[in-house]
Amino acid sequence: MVRDEVSRITRLVVVSGCSGGGKSTLLAELEQRGSGIVEEPGRRVIARERMNKGRALPWVDLVAFARKALDMARRDRSWALRASGLVFFDRGLVDAAAALEHATGEAALQRVADERYNRRVFLVPPWREIFENDADRRHGYDEAVEEIERLKDAYDKLGYETLTVPRLPVTDRADFIRARLLAN
């Protein structure tokens, strides 16, 4: 990989983890500090499917949902490679591929192995005190715990270094991430 490509990739930072752990709030804080952000593909797929009365919803057709999230995450990454400065992703290609692999058993992770992000991936763990269901997040806390274990395994298999974001106020969580990136 050429040096320019490596520097472009190190700017792409994934914040992954379970639903309901505070990822979106954390990314909003990072955006306030001047970084670019990419909203979670799954939430955007759900919004589009609802608007178009589609069926690619995780509680209706998980496979179709995961495929759409994977396509969207791939487009997000392509856009971010052309952007400048740090870009934080609320999930990414690996998350979507892990969901697809979980739903189908197909080797989806291998298909995204060469589409890299920063080697450090920040995992937001389940946090029972802030976990909430809503119209788009219908699974429970126990499923969120299972999800983060699958995601950690997926990122580990692909050679990423996963760092768990501590359960702290959002400003301290953002400081934690930025400090770890500077140590990169």
Automatic annotation (TrEMBL):
InterPro entries according to UniProt: NadR/Ttd14_AAA_dom (IPR038727), P-loop_NTPase (IPR027417)
Gene3D superfamilies the record matches: P-loop containing nucleotide triphosphate hydrolases (3.40.50.300)
Pfam families in the record: AAA_28
Residue span, NadR/Ttd14 AAA domain: 13-173
Protein name: AAA family ATPase
Lineage: Bacteria, Pseudomonadati, Pseudomonadota, Alphaproteobacteria, Sphingomonadales
